[in-house]
Design a protein that fits this description.
This protein is an alpha+beta fold and 746 residues long. It folds into five domains: 147 residues, Jelly Rolls; 89 residues, Immunoglobulins (Immunoglobulin-like), CATH 2.60.40; 286 residues, TIM Barrel; 70 residues, Immunoglobulin-like (Sandwich); 92 residues, no CATH class. Helix content is 18%, strand content 31%. It is built from 13 helices and 44 strands. The strands form twelve sheets. The protein has an eight-stranded parallel sheet with strand order 33-32-31-30-29-28-27-34. A six-stranded antiparallel sheet has the order 3-2-4-10-7-8, with no helix packed on it. The chain has a five-stranded mixed sheet with strand order 38-44-43-40-41, with no helix packed on it. The longest helix is centred in the middle third of the chain and has 17 residues.
């Protein structure tokens, strides 16, 4: 019978050598798996984290293994490429940092053995990802096992699969379950015993056949998302002379679904809106070397916010997390890291990573779409090789899996007339109107226009969000990184996206802050701070509760702005979120009245004098905080960018006149403003059809977005293109803008 031996403990590790050792090293660092060498330097900013080869070495006495015919080394995650050596002999090379791979070690095992795994996350042009807004942590960051099996066994060689594939088909009130097994080294007379048990462990169907069988479940209990995530178990036992010599099992769910361009996601014949979040797998101080308790905490938090769907970006996640998705009933978008920059030399890697994704995750009922790519048209959507690569992947998905649809996340400037948009079954767009230019109210109309133009293509929003740290203001504005602007942004996006029934799925970017070592913004480098929860999972930002108010059935009330205590205004706005129908707010025990709000967002004007204890009450629930009147704004609340040429509060503003803190579109709306801007920035801004930051091509959508950036913000973004404006340049431009009157509002 099969035995699985965990192989995580006590590996020697180093980044300081460049060759495979011939004996167990004596002066390397001792580590236990999972392990990443970028857990610190991949999160501290500077884009200088170590990208190279790390070596792991471990000794093994074969006598410590159970007796078996064959032995496999199983590696569940080595980012991003790995070479495996046993006793000095190279056994395999694997490209792709997020999937399981195995190697047969039987023929090289001796009494005393030295295992060495060389893991490499250095830049190259053959393995995805290479360009993306997240850290590519190096290391053996998931479990490593040794699997001991009979000479005849369920397959362990084919793209990391489990050797069993279960395909349910709903027929009326019943289900036909096709179970396909893959067996290595079969012998005459061997059979497979197939058994299906229900959630209580009771047998509901059984048969004996060869490598494929069809069983029937009467009155099948459907897997119905969070409402009823019911799971069956299929077990296959390989029999020789009626003796079990190997066995595998997998849980599965029985459900039907379709994605309708008018009515969105349909689960088991019922409308089931997919409203949820995206997730990166890394953590503060841990990198991507997560333990089961980390995965479970993430799942608990996602369930608390009330999400019905998760986009597992931008790569294959840990099998344990997919299992949790099955158990909790989350509907999943699973994808490969074909992202940001198409590499003609890496087509085979997209194919192998897609095969691994599908084969290793085929049995998970939570997964409904395979993601082909993310923002891959950053340098244009007309590259014939890029289009062909996507068609190959799309056809591959349909060939390997007849039961699921394909999708992709298109970057905002990608033209809706692009042939690229026509390739998958459904499509979503990544839009940041209201953060990276544009206004929040542009989001809903954009999707309406797409839906009108392509009424038969299901459309969703795969990314939207804005960054927030512990900065605060009573006058939130785009680009200020305050918790208050993030809350406002998501209030607006919730109302726009959640009320459009035709949108097949929406995914907030992101559930958690995550490591992006190249980032230098928001006052804390090395992270993307768009999460609804901080990187360490310790603090739920106010926007988290805006979603909970719309999505969760668990009654609650949340008082926003608890970290924003010192306030200068005489009367201050206080926001409360709740999924209950009525909220009452008390200030120092005195009621400020009761309010109702169909959108779950309750706003109160609160007198601000001395110190005020606020208590929000909704039904049996309450939440409290304090505010305090101050004469001068607390500078601890104000963003101070590291290495910024100018901060917005350093800029002289003249009432009724323009400044660097005004939007380019507003300035260009006046003749004087246009002339001043064209005198300096106009020469630097890319024209329509030209390339700009990140490789984007300037088009009508980008022109519209850029008009909503402040001059100061766009000056910082131009810096990423190698165009640097000095402090003197900016102050001179500001002085000129200060002389131009703003037009009177109509």
């Amino acid at each position: 019978m099969r035995s699985v031996i965990n192989f995580n403990a006590k590996w020697a590790f180093t980044k300081m050598v460049n060759e495979v050792p011939s004996e167990m090293p004596k002066n390397w660092e001792w580590v236990n798996l999972p392990h990443s060498w970028n857990a610190i330097d991949g999160q501290d900013g500077g884009n200088d984290y170590f990208r190279g080869t790390g070596y792991y070495a471990k000794a093994l006495d074969k006598m410590d293994l159970p007796e078996a015919d064959r032995y496999y080394l199983e590696i569940n995650g080595a980012n991003s490429s790995a070479d495996v050596y046993v006793n000095g002999q190279k056994l395999t090379h694997h490209d792709g940092g997020y999937s399981t791979f195995r190697v047969d070690i039987t023929d090289v095992l001796q009494r005393d053995n030295l295992f060495v795994i060389a893991v490499d996350n250095s830049a190259n042009d053959r393995v995805y990802p290479q360009v993306a807004d997240f850290t590519f942590y190096g290391g053996l960051y998931r479990n490593v096992n040794i699997i001991c099996v009979n000479q005849s066994h369920f397959d362990l060689d084919y793209f990391g699969g489990s050797g069993i594939a279960v395909t349910p088909e709903i027929v009326g009130a019943d289900a036909k379950i096709n179970i396909k097994t893959y067996i290595s080294n079969t012998k005459m007379g061997q059979k497979v015993a197939y058994t299906i048990t229900d959630a209580n462990g009771d047998v509901v169907a059984t048969t004996t056949a060869e490598d494929e069988a069809v069983l029937e479940i009467k009155d099948v209990h459907l897997w119905h998302g969070k409402k009823d995530p019911y799971l069956y178990t299929a077990k296959a036992e390989l029999l020789e002379d009626d003796k079990v010599i190997d066995a595998v099992s997998t849980r599965f769910g029985c459900r039907t679904y379709k994605i309708d361009p008018e009515n969105g996601f349909i689960l088991n014949g019922e409308e089931y809106p997919l409203r949820g979040v995206s997730r990166h797998q890394d953590r503060w101080g841990v990198g991507n070397a997560l333990l089961p308790e980390h995965h479970k905490e993430d799942m608990d938090l996602i369930c608390e916010v009330g999400a019905t769907t998760i986009r597992l970006a931008h790569y294959q996640h840990d099998q344990y997390f997919y299992d949790l998705c099955d158990e909790r009933g989350l509907v999943i978008w699973a994808e490969i890291p074909y992202i940001s920059q198409h590499m003609p030399t890496a087509r085979e890697n997209t194919i192998s990573q897609m095969k691994e994704l599908i084969i290793q995750n085929y049995n998970h009922p939570s997964i409904v779409v395979w993601g082909l790519s993310n923002e891959i048209t950053m340098k244009g959507d007309t590259d014939p090789d890029l289009l062909e690569n996507h068609r190959i992947l799309n056809d591959l998905c349909h060939e390997m899996d007849k039961t699921r649809l394909t999708t992709m996340a298109a970057v905002s400037p990608c033209p809706t007339e692009s042939p690229y948009i026509q390739i998958p079954d459904v499509v979503s767009y990544n839009h940041y109107f209201g953060w990276y230019g544009g206004e929040t109210d542009m989001n809903g109309p954009w999707f309406d226009n797409f839906h009108k133009r392509w009424p038969n293509i299901p459309i969703g929003c795969s990314e939207y969000g804005c960054e927030a740290l512990n900065w605060h203001t009573s006058n939130p504005m785009q680009g200020d990184y305050t918790e208050e602007y993030q809350a406002y942004y998501h209030e607006e996006l919730i109302k726009q996206l959640f009320t459009r029934k035709y949108m097949w799925a929406t995914h907030v970017w992101n559930m958690f802050d995550f490591g992006a070592d190249a980032r230098s913004e928001g006052g804390e480098n090395g992270q993307n701070h768009k999460g609804l929860i901080t990187f360490d999972r310790k603090y739920k930002k106010d926007a988290f509760y805006a979603y909970k108010a719309w999505l969760s059935d668990d009654p609650f009330v949340h008082l926003c702005g608890k970290r924003y205590i010192d306030r200068v205004e005489e009367v201050t706005k206080v926001t409360v979120y709740s999924n209950l129908s009525e909220v009452e707010l008390f200030a120092n025990g005195v009621s400020l009245g009761k309010k109702t709000a169909e959108d779950h967002f309750f706003y109160f004007d609160v007198p601000n004098a001395g110190e005020t204890k606020l208590v929000a009450v909704a039904g049996d629930f309450k939440d409290e905080g304090i505010i305090r009147k101050v004469e001068k704004f607390n500078e601890e609340y104000r963003l101070k960018e590291k290495n910024a040429v100018l901060n917005w509060f350093d800029i002289t503003e003249v009432e009724g006149h323009f400044s660097l803190n005004d939007k380019i579109g507003d300035i260009f709306s006046t003749l004087q403003g246009k002339m001043v801007m064209m005198g300096l920035l106009g020469k630097l801004l890319p024209k329509k059809g030209e390339k700009m930051m990140g490789g984007f091509e300037m088009n009508d959508t980008m022109m519209q977005m850029m008009g909503s950036f402040t001059v100061l913000r766009i000056s910082g973004m131009i810096g990423t293109m190698g165009v640097n404006l000095s402090k003197e340049d900016l102050l001179d431009l500001n002085a000129k803008l200060n002389k131009i009157k703003k037009p009177k509002k109509k």
